[in-house]
Protein 1
Amino acid sequence: MSIPLSYPLMLAAALFGIGLYGALSQRNAIRILMGIELMLNAVNINLVAFAYYLEGAAAAGQVFALFIMTVSAAEVALALAIILLLAKREKHIDIEQVNLLRW
Amino acid sequence: MVELAWLIPLLPLVAAVVIAFLGKRLPGQGDRIGIAAISMAFVLSVGVLVGVMNGGTAAGSVTWAIHGDLVLRMGWEVGGIGAVMLVVVTLVSLMVHVFSLEYMKGDVRYQRYYGVLSLFTFSMLGLVLADNLLLLFIFWELVGLCSFLLIGHWYEDLDNVRAANKAFLTTRVGDVGMFIGIMLLFSQAGSFRFDEIAAAVAAGDVAGWALAAGAILLFAGAVGKSAQFPLHVWLPDAMAGPTPASALIHAATMVAAGVYLVARAFGIFEPSDAAMSVVAWIGAITALFAATIGVVMEDIKRVLAYSTISQLGFMVAALGVGGYTAAMFHLMTHAFFKALLFLASGSVIHATGTQNMHEMGGLFKKLPITGWTWLIGAGALIGIPPLSGFFSKEEILIDAYAANPAIFWVLVAAAALTAFYTTRATYLTFFGAPRDRAAYEKAHEGGMVMTYPLIILGALAAVTGFLAGPFADLVYYGHPHRAEFNTFVFGVATVVWVAGVLLALAIYKFNLVSRRRLIQAFYPIWMLLKRRYYIDDLYNLVFVRGTIGLAMVMAWIDRTIVDGIVNGVAWATRKLSGFIGEFDLGVVDGAVNGIAGAFVVGSRLFRRVQTGLFQSYALVLFLGLVAGLVILVIGG
């Protein structure tokens, strides 16, 4: 049996929408970060799904998914470090009140 | 000894420098230094004269400037005429130096007086020794400067300052012509040296017009310096200076420099008939003209001044008729007897404190030495044989008679007037009743330093006439020439001087004719003479007033037109600047400000976009992506 391609794509689209909503709507930096991670994972699902369904693109899709996981791990580590410093400095992590880099 | 002639001018120069810088610390403010230097110069000059009489000549020169092929040398040379002049200048200068010891005693600027006297002697000796026109011109101006300084010696009095300026400026008029003449001759002959120019003239290298013009222009300098008509006006005023200085500068030496110049450059004058005629007539006119004014002057020094002008006219006229030797001989005798007359008048002024002859009278008893020496000088001036003036004037008259009878008769008339005014001055000063009793009572003869120079010059004025023979062998142009005795000339000259003397005595001593009646009878002429032919007034009107008037016109032009233009330009510039300023403020600054303002407005507008909230950026990013995808899908 096989699951049609549209299923994982819809899952990925839903996941991406949830992630995007989280990233754009939340004021807590950690939550935003979580939203971004969701979006990244939605992309990963897309890649793996296409790798599975498209002949000849299998290896490239899986390798790309692995790369994204690595990069996102690094990104999260960096982002968490920034958020940690922000929390230390401002005693909060409310992104709307952080304007340190604003003009 | 002749080779040492160059030392002669240097001695007074050293004295002048020493007196100028150290005079205050020296005994007698340095007067003895000046006298010592001039004494040595005199001894040397006599040595040079003896050497030259034995056939010696000497010259020397140094390179002054090199311009391409032209090598300009400045040098000295001494021949017969130069040696005689050296002795005359140093001798008269020495007498004046000594005489001044008492005359100038206690003067406010005693040191300066002696310094300038030495400087003058240096300049005059340099002028005599110069072997070229340029160097002569330099010394020529130097003697003019010394003359200026001595005329204005008592410069507290504005009249003396005016007289000094008048002398300086009037002679400068001639000097400008002289300089042009020098340059003209240089451009033609390619040399400043007298002998080389004369050689070029003789070889025909100088165009006829250039020769005549050059000679006449040179003569213009002589006219100024020797106070010939029409530039004579400065000399009578120059009497404002100390009397001994007048004796040296304005009687014996400097004023004779013009005559010397013509004689020295005779090789330029002699070949040009036009120049010779000009010289002869200027001299003759001056001789007569100045003598007529001398008749009415009341100031003893002014009588002598006009007499000097007249006698210089005799010399110039003699040169004009070719009487080279006669002119130079008269220059020498005149230097002695006129210096004597000036020093004697100085003695009189010293004794009485006045220069007006109408306030003198009867001084012969009080001033016997001055009186006797004056009589010798006056006799020489009149031309009474056997005094020196007789011989020299006779030579001039003989030469004039031979060359041009018209000139001769003019000179005879001048000689008659000379006899008249000299007798008049002599009688008014020394004889008759004293008119100023107080001055007469306190008048007394000066000391030895004043009387000895008078006696020495008196002796010279009496006997130098007998030197005519040796003089003619020494000073000549071309070949030795001595005027032959001429009975007719002698007769005429004797008649006129006797007539002049007798007429003067008749009027002033015997009162045969009332002077008041005479003045009334000849009032226009008397007034004309009294006002010196209105020449001074004319010059004052034309040149002084004219210059002032011209200056006023120029000032008006300057103020209204030139200043108007300047102010107009300034006004236009200001207006233009205002306009440009407006343009700058309005357009340029407006553009700049407008751009800046646009940026400000734009920034204000766009800064709203920069919320600083990354989520809004991300939203925009996402919306953009979606829009891109939509376009891709629809377009694709």
Note: The helical segments of chain A are 6-25, 29-53, 58-90.
Protein 2
Amino acid sequence: MTDRVFLCRCEDVTLSEIDHAIDEDLTSVEEIKRYTGLGTGPCQGRECIGPLACLLVRRGLADPSTIQPFTARPPAEPVTFGALAGTQPPFFADSSADWTVHRDPDTAAEEPDP
Amino acid sequence: MSLGSPSTPLPEAVDIAIVGGGVMGLGLAYHLAKIGKTAKRGSERPSIAVLEGSYLVSGASGRNGGGLRMQWADAGNVALMMESIDLCRGLAQELGINLWFRQGGYLFIARSEAASERLYRNAELHRDVGAPTRLLSPAEALAVVPHLDPSMVQVATFNPDDGVVFPWPFVWGYAAQAIRRGVLVRTHTRVDKLELTGEGYTLRLSTGERLRAARVVNATGAWSNELHRELGISLPNRPHRHEILSSEPLRPFLDPLVVDLDSGLYFSQSTRGELVTGISLPDLAGYDDESLSMHSSLRFLSVLSARLTALMPITRSLKILRQWSGLYDVSPDGDAYVGSTPGHPNLVQLCGFTGHGFMMAPAVTGLVARWLLCGESHPMLSRWDPVRSQHPPGRRREDMIIG
């Protein structure tokens, strides 16, 4: 057993690392993300952003009526390169350029994980 | 200890005010403070403040791919990057921070005649300058990255000393060491206006405060023309949005950063395991990419995915976790603007790095600090002199601007 408390399980960011960031005067969500890596793993902050917000509010470092999560980054859910490679870029002005390399995206699912 | 704060107290006046809390501004502050400390007895240590409108690393310094390479097409850039990479070797210890610096090399590949020709030319140039770049046959390139589609490679160059870092800790490291040496770092405070006051400037801040500075350094990258616009200064560098993405993390499988010269695609595996990748996208007609907007597009995902899966088919089943964008600060001739602004000797530009400022910063910030405090010259400083902005732009010497 360990006494370590993890706020971000994707990137193994512990409560003591958050404390350390706050000790360095980094008290906003965006700053803490960039100092600790919190929220940059597979769940993209879905699990850790709430506890972090609560912690900042509880310590009087953020106002619950104005605190915002860090900028949401597309895609909303992880998507394979294979699935996107088969799509025609939307609103594509230069239709003469052949960007897509024709492959059947369905075959991608049969590939073993690299 | 603080890493910069909105409540850092500022004096009425400083010797040098650096605007912009990215790798250039903080790296310069660190070197100025370091040189100032060891300066001869009798000379005063310069007082230095860094002003950042948002949080540190909020601009391009926190949004780039973290690549550092010697493989450029111009001898001056090759030599500068040899120095920068050499400095990075000792920088983790010097800054007391894990930079996640990994020298897995850069592998440039080419298919077309034109792109192959550029690699032949580069390999010859690099040999003359002393960079350890090697020309590789397709078979040798595949030995370095076995997952490449062999039909996509005609010729390649490989430099084992090129590498990648994780940009965030790199910048925090400079900030911490600058602050430790007495630099004041004020965040979340914009410079709304620069006013000429005697030989120096008064900075009007978004907090209502005023700060006087004998010299001002403009290290605001893509935002640099906004800072001095009201002084009637306009330099020809322009912001340009570039996109990038990272994948889910994988066990280490890819040593070098790979650049496909024909498509402008690049990808590397970060020390955290993610594939970090971007591509040169032509501007859409009638669409303003100089707007300072930092949005993301599906077009980028589609084009990049088509190119990446064609070049390295095993990536088809790899998942994209997130995409973001950042702003290049592009000059017409591809060279930075570093030095006194025409007509404003005490307003120093440190911008226009055209997408390669991050990798050059370790060398650049040191040489600019030595120029500011000791008057030391450097061949790149004459080349980067902003005075050339008053003449029609020269031919672009550098054609290896990627992403």
Note: The two ends of chain B are 37 Å apart (CA to CA).
